Amino acid sequence: MKADWLGVYPALTTKFTSSGDLDIPMFLHNVDAQMKAGVDGIIIGGSLGESSTLSHDERIELIQAARDHVQGRIPVVMNVAEGSLRSAVQLAKRAQDAGADGFMLLPPMMYKPTSQETADYFMAFAKSTDLSILVYNNPVDYKVEITLDMFEQFAAHDNIAAVKESTRDISNVTRMRNRFGDRFKILCGVDTLAMEELLMGADGWVAGLVCAFPEETVAIYRLIKAGRMSEALPIYRWFLPILELDIDPQLVQNIKLAEVLTGLGNENVRLPRQRLQGERRNEVFRILAKGLENRPKLPDYLSIKAH
Length: 307
Hints:
- The protein is of the alpha/beta class.
- The protein has a single domain (7-303), classed as Alpha-Beta Barrel (TIM Barrel).
- It contains 12 helices and 8 strands.
- The protein has helices at 24-37, 56-70, 85-98, 115-127, 139-142, 148-154, 171-180, 194-199, 214-225, 229-243, 251-261, 278-293, and strands at residues 7-10, 42-44, 76-80, 102-105, 132-137, 160-165, 185-188, 204-207.
- The protein has an 8-stranded parallel β-sheet with strand order 1-8-7-6-5-4-3-2.
- Strand 6, helix 7 (171-180) and strand 7 form a beta-alpha-beta unit.
């Protein structure tokens, strides 16, 4: 099933057992909740998915488990974050053989490349696969900006189809539209800017807190796209203190605690990460508990046409 980059694409957390192995049943339990809520695709092995701690074999295991489970109902996308083009291409070929429907691609990791090195990396990767690619533009965390001039080069490659817009600059949505029209789909990659970027014309939302709150996330997206802002706004305002847990160095632990409180996951992480402890854990717990206590009643958003 081809990824069309429209709608809500959760960046799923990776579920682990207490001994540190993949917890496939819990992972699929969360996938079920995402599909029931109406998400439009899922992304496996992203930063929120503790990508740096996963082996290639484990990523393939997650792809296969997801593909077998969703049975073509939604696209399954794999994140590729490698230090070399060779490794990225090898992983992508294995993932495509395992049934991946698309890729989210980060710039080369480990060192900061030049702009042309970055552009060439993306374009060489694109030539190695016929699957659709979501470019991850996150200069805040990865110190590499995918500039408009680089997207100009990407436009010649049909399968470089979309951008996960995480620059934290809402006006970048308009810059992309002014220069490229609808050539690239634009998905907001920062939870705390989602409503703003969707109102400016973004096509979708690569979400983090959706892992614990799938219904609220999809409801906001569909209501905005249906022009029902007066209904979306109070949900988004309720959600914002929780969404701010996504823009924190401990976002993985924050969101995994949220998944525990909503029955959609556990707190197990892989070293060097550790579970939240002490006052920080208490603070995050208080934010989540307050949100759950005041959880809004949602309209029948599933009856709204998604796109």
